[in-house]
């Protein structure tokens, strides 16, 4: 069964809480969702397993993993084993920031969207309860949308790309409530920057703290945490 | 020996005529050049061999090859073996266009530059004797520069990225003359979209035609062509 191109979307799927929610939101809007994850040398592969589970449970039409052999870049605690993931709050842009990550992810998503004939790219960035990364800000997303429409054959020929970030202005608690209302199984998701070998969250890193705060404010237990 | 960050540059190096010229131009400006090539599933690997030779001969400080495992994207005659490279002129955006290629390349270059502390990204795009790709236009480059300064920690903290495209408004003949004046050995470069197994140019594809026209107009023989 084919769908109209304007009902196809590429959804960036990390396997975390936010991306599981945007998949559900895109499906709610009626999009045929082409989920895209990245193996970019992140220090734990648990998030790719989580992404596959989330894609399957969330009704993605397909799920692809793009491999980026860019290990020489380094520079982030998420990819460089020589740097430690902080286990307490820090100020400023944190060491877990991966240089230009969202730009690379969106660029690959754009290329795939162009081939699919899709014009909607969903990304689960958030400017409220976020980690202070520059490429999660509204002005960054607007600049990428402008770029996308200049960069591509589809843009030049009248197609109109949209960078869709429906979580941008939501708190973590609001994101969780929205997802629960759409039946998202957050037990499949993994947000932690530094899980143990069994894939269990550390509970102390920035991502774990934001997630715990979100579930606490939403007034529901986190199903991913075995008590 | 270390150099000031403002004298480091990332240079996108395909191994073709244009990228060999920008490496020479960046070196002339005194930059320590970090050359970057991509293995993205292009149908011939000859250009990566050419890039390595050009980097060495052109005085690059280092040369890295980023591997992009994005074969599922398809959609271009340069990566998809099911599509033929045209051997005669075509109109419109050609089938050799790789979706979002320059966006992906510049995004990875941006990430590397941020880690290196470089703020200058050199790219050999050209808006005169070019193949009609949307991501070779001045407005595209300007949009990427805006994006780069929003996307990055270095941008937010006051660093200022520059997308440097010194060939943008030159004809192919002017590019060749500039390179020859800087000692570029064009015998090492490979421009062809569809070389034979021995790495010899086909002479008929769009890239070969533009190159031949350039050398003819410059009034010099192409050293890459064995007579």
From TrEMBL, chains A, B:
Entry EC no(s): 6.3.4.20
Q: Where is the secretion signal located?
A: none
Q: Which UniProt keywords apply?
A: ATP-binding, Ligase, Metal-binding, Nucleotide-binding, Queuosine biosynthesis, Zinc
Spell out the reaction equation it catalyses: 7-carboxy-7-carbaguanine + NH4(+) + 2 ATP = 7-cyano-7-carbaguanine + 2 AMP + 2 diphosphate + 2 H(+)
**UniProt KW tRNA-binding keyword:** no
Cofactor dependence is on: Zn(2+)
Q: Which GO terms describe its molecular function?
A: ATP binding; ligase activity, forming carbon-nitrogen bonds; zinc ion binding
What InterPro entries does the record tag this protein with? QueC, Rossmann-like_a/b/a_fold
The keyword Zinc belongs to this UniProt entry's keyword annotation:
yes
The family database entries (SUPFAM superfamilies) matched by this protein are listed as: Adenine nucleotide alpha hydrolases-like
Residues that bind ATP: 13-23
Binding sites annotated in the UniProt record for Zn(2+): 192, 202, 205, 208
**Cofactor binding summary note:** Binds 1 zinc ion per subunit.
At the top level, the lineage of the source is Bacteria
Family annotation (Pfam families)? QueC (PF06508)
| A single GO BP | tRNA queuosine(34) biosynthetic process
Q: Pathway of this protein?
A: Purine metabolism; 7-cyano-7-deazaguanine biosynthesis
Gene3D superfamilies in the cross-refs? HUPs
Role, per record: Catalyzes the ATP-dependent conversion of 7-carboxy-7-deazaguanine (CDG) to 7-cyano-7-deazaguanine (preQ(0)).
Family listed: Belongs to the QueC family.
Please report the name of this protein according to its UniProt entry. 7-cyano-7-deazaguanine synthase
Q: Which organism is it from?
A: Acidiferrobacter thiooxydans
Species lineage, top-down?
Answer: Bacteria, Pseudomonadati, Pseudomonadota, Gammaproteobacteria, Acidiferrobacterales
């Amino acid at each position: 069964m084919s769908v109209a191109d304007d009902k196809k979307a590429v959804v960036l799927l990390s396997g975390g809480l936010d991306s599981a929610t945007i998949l559900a939101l895109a499906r709610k809007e009626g999009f045929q969702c082409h989920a895209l994850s990245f193996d970019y040398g992140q220090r734990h592969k648990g998030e790719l397993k989580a992404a596959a589970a989330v894609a399957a449970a969330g009704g993605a039409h397909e799920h692809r993993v793009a491999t980026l052999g860019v290990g020489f870049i380094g520079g982030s605690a998420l990819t460089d084993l020589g740097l430690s993931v902080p286990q307490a709050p820090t100020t400023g842009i944190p060491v877990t920031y991966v240089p230009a990550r969202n730009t690379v992810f969106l660029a690959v998503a754009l290329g795939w969207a162009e081939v699919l004939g899709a014009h909607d790219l969903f990304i689960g960035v958030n400017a409220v309860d976020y980690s202070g990364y520059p490429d999660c800000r509204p002005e960054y997303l607007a600049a990428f949308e402008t770029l996308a429409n200049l960069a591509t054959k589809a843009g030049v020929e009248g197609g109109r790309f949209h960078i869709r970030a429906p979580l941008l202005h939501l708190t973590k608690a609001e994101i969780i409530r929205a997802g629960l209302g759409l039946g998202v199984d957050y037990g499949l998701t993994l947000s932690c920057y530094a899980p143990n070998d069994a894939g269990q969250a550390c509970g102390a890193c920035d991502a774990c703290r934001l997630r715990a705060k979100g579930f606490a404010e939403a007034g529901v237990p986190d199903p991913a945490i075995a008590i």
